[in-house]
Design a protein that fits this description.
Elements lengths: L27 H26 L8 H19 L11 H18 L3 H19 L1 H13 L12 H18 L8 E3 L2 E4 L2 E4 L7 H17 L3 H33 L8 H21 L18
Antiparallel strand pairs: 1-2, 2-3
Helix pairs in contact: 1-4, 2-5, 2-7, 3-4, 4-5, 6-8, 7-8, 7-9, 8-9
Length: 305
């Protein structure tokens, strides 16, 4: 006598309700080929950006700080959606093609900045192809914030540099005499008995100001409290200016104690890094508790982990 084992029919796959209709799981080989092609096309742009970000702590160094911050927010959003099935939206090519056209235009103009803008523009399109609509919607704002990491031509910021230089000079001239050091101001140069310190464009604190405002915008985007959002946005500029003022005061006191040669040592660029170390944690603190993301431990009912 033979026995037969009853087989239970396989449970039907449950589609994710939040995924737009018509999206399919992406072909990994195809997507990796697209990604490799984009990396090859934008490799010179990435090298140019790296050179600008690492040129000195005074010029565009905020990019090195801002990109990891954006990456952190993108990671947090994607982790919150990891229960969703993989998908790909071919409409990403509608964004990628204009980005590639802009990059091709810059190949003849050689501004490099247009290519950098094209790279930022291409990221949402690449995200649609690699991650699908739902995940792209979740990380779209942080991706667009990457535009703030692009270098700004000096011709657009000269007037602001000058204003910041005068603010740093006036503030230092007001504080240093309280520490027992007479100081004479000539333009944006501070004269002491032991030497002079010129508050040049590199010492204006513009890079710190730019980074502080950019990080404040991201922090406000993630903040749970509307009051905290306003507070962090309004406080970013004063915090950055105060951090740079403290740095200039410290440098003047070091010149008084050790002489002008101290500015030719590692202390000078290290003081620039100090402004970021002072300003950014305060901005994060002002932002308060970040808005809650969906649970990562318990996927919604019917979702495939």
């Amino acid at each position: 006598m033979s026995t037969t084992t009853a087989t239970r029919p396989a449970a039907p796959a449950v589609a994710d309700a939040s995924a737009p209709a018509g999206e399919r799981p992406p072909s990994r080989l195809f997507l990796w080929l697209v990604l490799a092609g984009l990396l090859a096309v934008f490799a010179p742009t990435l090298i140019w950006l790296w050179e600008r970000w690492t040129m000195s702590v005074w010029q565009n160094a905020h990019g090195l700080l801002f990109v990891p911050v954006v990456a952190y927010f993108v990671r947090e959003e994607l982790l919150a959606l990891r229960h969703l099935p993989r998908s790909s939206n071919p409409w990403g090519f509608v964004i990628l093609l204009p980005a590639l056209a802009l990059h091709a235009l810059d190949a003849g103009m050689h501004t490099e900045l247009l290519s950098a803008g094209a790279l930022v523009l291409a990221l949402p399109g690449l995200s649609l192809l690699m991650l699908g609509t739902v995940r792209t919607r979740a990380i779209l704002v942080p991706l667009l914030f990457l535009a703030l990491a692009l270098p700004i031509p000096l011709s657009f910021t000269e007037s602001l540099h000058l204003v910041l230089r005068h603010i740093a000079t006036a503030g230092t001239a007001a504080v240093v005499p309280m520490l027992g050091v007479p100081v004479f101001v000539e333009g944006t140069t501070l004269h002491t008995a032991q030497g002079a310190l010129e508050v040049a464009d590199a010492c204006s604190g513009f890079s710190t100001l730019y980074a502080a405002i950019a990080v404040a915008m991201l922090t406000a985007y993630q903040s749970k409290s509307p009051t905290r959002r306003v507070l962090v946005l309004l406080g970013a500029a004063p915090i950055a200016i105060a951090a740079n003022l403290l740095r200039v005061i410290l440098l003047v006191m070091l010149v008084v104690w050790r002489g002008g040669d101290i500015l030719n040592t590692f202390v000078h660029p290290l003081s620039g890094i100090m402004t970021f170390v002072l300003a950014l944690p305060i901005i994060f603190w002002l932002g308060g508790e970040q808005r809650g993301l969906p649970s990562r431990t318990a996927p919604p009912a019917g979702a495939t982990p």
